[in-house]
Amino acid sequence: MTYLKTRAVEPDLIGRPSSNQRRWFGLGMIILGLSVATSALLGPLMLGVIEYHASQGAIDQLTGGDAAALFLVAPLSIIAGILALRGHRAAPVIAMGPAVYAVYTYTQLTLGGDFVRYPGNSEDFFLLNLGLFLTGGLMAITAWTSIDTNRLPRTSSRFDRTLGSILLAAAVFLLFGLHVPHLIELWGGELSDAYLADPGVYWLVKLMDLGIMVPAMIGVGIGLPRHRVWAQRAKYGVVGWFALLGSSVAGMAIVMQINQDASASLANTIGFGTFALLGLALAFVLYRPLFTVATEPVESVRRPMR
After folding, report:
1. How many separate domains does the chain show?
2. pLDDT above 70: percentage of residues in the chain
3. Rounded to the nearest 10 degrees, how much is the dihedral formed by the CA atoms of 98, 258, 125, 21?
4. 5 lies in a domain?
5. Which of 35, 208, 185 is nearest to 112 (CA)?
6. Which domain does 117 fall in, by range?
7. pTM of the predicted model, to two decimals?
């Protein structure tokens, strides 16, 4: 007589790349995390060695962003790297968030300053930012290609519809609640103090948010309820990015509030804080099943009783 029982199976790296691939991917994520931490420590948050060509209001925002980078992005990158070295299946999906965040953030830190108007020395750290940009891009591509959707934890149709609706709502908020009103004011001739202080930062953020972040959220938000395979893969990167970027923006708002910046407001601080908590909660719910122990059926033989 036979019967089926289950035995624990250690979660493995999705896609099962070779040991050499896992090794360099893991080391790459650890290097990314250490580099992110180095940039944050050298910036206005801690040592002040890097002096950005920006207004004091923008420096306050950079300080809050450095806090998120140091306490969230860097540790998560290192954790993803360690998981990759151990062959854990969660490594590539967790790596996508901090990798894309690095490309997004260090593009802005490299190009967003006014190098003629404000003093600073951030150009001396161009190679650090270039390394972060290239490493983040390479790790994001590697993580994407390492994911095998057939081995991802299955999410219910209800969960996918809910997550898709949240991403679409967040995209609508960013588009019509944040960016479009500012653009209408600007096109109408109303130049805010924040715009006049850092117009380069203003346009770069608008370009990247409206050209990358909002379309990504809309695409995944539409693709998930339709059970698109690419959306099942992309949701991990978008949610991770959402959580990290939301935390960074919340950190910016908090520092501006503490320093009594003219552009700060309690409503923005609460709103962006809520945005960050929502992103972190979504990431927790989405990533948690990756760390459960899977089971598989194993045929066993029952000996007849004597």
Report:
1. 1
2. 90
3. -10
4. no
5. 208
6. 10-293
7. 0.83
